[in-house]
Design a protein that fits this description.
Number of strands: 0
Largest sheet: none
Distance between the termini: 58 Å
Order of helices and strands: H
Shape: rod-shaped
Length: about 45
Amino acid sequence: MEEKKWTGGQEFIAWSDKMLQMIREIRQIDREQRQIYSRSIKLERK
């Protein structure tokens, strides 16, 4: 695999934007999962 040379940082910026987008989506999913989980616990306690 050849060494990747960043062309003026453009590719790096695009890559880091993509990573941030993925992290945001993962956090959003995580938050939704927790809300579903806490809701199911409340239902079990009744």
